[in-house]
Write a structure and sequence with these properties.
Number of helices: 16
Shape: globular
Number of domains: 2
Order of helices and strands: HHHHHHHHHHHHHHHH
Largest sheet: none
Structural class: mainly alpha
Amino acid sequence: MREQLAKLEERHDERGLAEGSYIAGMLMSWLGRSEESKAAFDAAVMHAERAGDRRLQLMPIGIKILMNAWGYLPVAEGLRSCDELLLQHGGTSVEPLVRTARALYLSLDGAHDEGRAEIEYARQLYLEYGNELLAAASGLGHAFQETRAGRPELAEQIAREGAERLKQFGDQGFYSTMIGQLAEALYSQGRYDDAEEWAQAVAEVAMENDYEPQITWRSVRSRVLARRQQFDEAKALAREAIELARATDSWIEVGDSHKDLAEVLELAGETAEARAELQRALEAYERKGATWDVDVTRRRLGRIRGGGK
C-alpha cells in the first residue's frame, strides 16, 4: 500500500491519493489500529480538498469518528468530537456516521435511552441518504448497546433483522460482526446451545484479520464450554480472544475479553484468578472512559471474594 501511495505522490494524483489514503485507513481500522488510522484518514481529507472532491472529503471524516468510537478514543473526548462534527457537518452524509459513533459513546457512558434514540435516528438518516447497507449495518452497534443495557431479547431481534438484510446484500464483514452480536445476545439470555451455534457460524464466515468477530466467537464459545464444565478448552479459547484483543487499541474489546475469561475462571472456581482478570478488564474500561462498564466491573469485583484454586 505504501508503494502504491508513493507512486501516486510522484504523479501528484490528489484524487488517487485521497482514495488510497482512505482505503489505508479502513484497512488499519479493520485490523484494530484505530489510532494509527487517523493519519491515513486525515491525509485522505487533505488530498480530497486539493482535488476539489467533496464526496471524498466527507467520507473519511465520518468513518474516522466511527472507527475511533470502537477503538482508542476515550468517551468524553469522543462525545466532544461528535458534537463538534455535528455542528460542522449536520445535514450531510457525515451526520448518520457521527450519530452512530455518538450513540455508542452514550451507551458506554451509561446513557442507554439517549444512545438508543441516537442510533435509531442514525438508521433513519442512512435510509434518507440512500445508504441501505449502512442502515442495516447500524444494527450491530444497536444490538451491542441493547445487550449491554440488559435488553438481550431486543438485541437478538435487532441482530437477526440486521443479519438477514446484510445477507441479502451479500456482505461478509458486517454480517460476521452482526451474527457475533446475535451470539452474545443469545448467551446473555442463557440460551447457550443457540449461542454456540451462532458463534460457530461466526467462526466459519469471519475474515481471518477481522479482529472483532474473531474475538467474539472465541469469547462466546469459551463461556458456553465453561457452563458445560469443559474448563481447559474454555480457558484456552478465552485466552486466544485476549491475545487477539490486545493486538488492537479497542479498549472495549480488551476489557470484554478479560471480563469473559474472568467468568470462565469463576465458573471453574478459580476466584483469585478471576479477580485478576476483572482488574485487567477494569483498567481497559477506565482507559476508554466507559463509565458504565467501569461501574459494572467494580460491583462485580466487590462480589467476588478471595480464595479459589
